[in-house]
Amino acid sequence: MSLSELRVHAAPEEQVALQQRQEHRQVRILVLILAGTTLAMAGVEAARHSLPDLAWHDFLIQAFSLCPYLAATIVLALDRRRERSWIGLITLGIGLLACALGNWPLKAGLPHDFHLSDSGRTADPRLLWGLAFFLVVPWLIWLGRRYPAELRAAGMEGRQLPQQLLFGLLTGLLLSGHLFFSASFSGAPLVHGWNWRYFLWILGYEAGLQTWAEELFFRGFLFSFLHHQRGWGFWRAAIVSAALNLLLYLPKQEWRQNPLVAVGVLFYVFAAGMLYAGLYRRFRSIWPSFTANLVFDIFAFVVY
User: Fold this and answer.
1) How far apart are CA 36 and CA 267, in angstroms?
2) What is the pLDDT of residues 263-290, one digit of tens each?
3) Is the N or the C terminus of the chain less surrounded, counting Cβ atoms within 10 Å?
4) d(Cα 162, Cα 156) in Å, to the nearest integer?
5) Are the C-beta atoms of 150 and 277 separated by less than 8 Å?
6) Euclidean distance between the first and final Cα of the chain, in Å?
7) Cβ distance 215 to 286 under 8 Å?
């Protein structure tokens, strides 16, 4: 057998070995990120009363969850690029800067158990610092142009975009309608006339950082990895990704003091994660789930 024939026969085995090494690396990074996030947020919660104020608490929670989720997804998307580590560090740095600017000017000095809606700062000009959360958006746009194939593989697939956005909008409205119907039995006012500055802060947080990190990591990476690469069935992969998505919401203080609200939050986060996974399987893109997530979160803010 000639040398060229040996190469032809060896190539598939080398490809399989390379794919296995990549999958093992992805598993290690996934376990490291989720375990580190869980331990870090548990540590923040344990030390919550010794932290200076709400700004430190919220910054640390975001710094140990949203920021590494976003950076890890980018690193894994650029797995075959030599510069992946630098790009990941820059992504992490931009996320941390966005969290610092979005939290400290507004939340510094507030008690740990306060929510912004109770702080008396819902019309404060410092709420405009929430627009700093949008710092991650131009960076993601640049990455999408610099590495189009890799970012499409991570879920930023733009084909059939109008159809994707329509499905996402309908899913978000479905969840919002269900929430409105369920909340109507509470007897509490369902629509709040928040100041426009407060709305901009919420919009910056949701559309500028949280939803990008959430959808790229839990749908673009985690669900896709379990379902498409590891061969898990849809329900198994969707349940695991939706359950782990709850990690983002467990440290939040504003709803845990009310058991009924806590059950509602956990139910909707899990149900939404299942629906978002279904959207991702349908389109192989995060745009539908991103749209649904954003619509539902903004509606929940208006109602809450």
Assistant:
1) 25
2) 777 888 899 999 999 999 999 999 999 9
3) N
4) 14
5) no
6) 72
7) yes
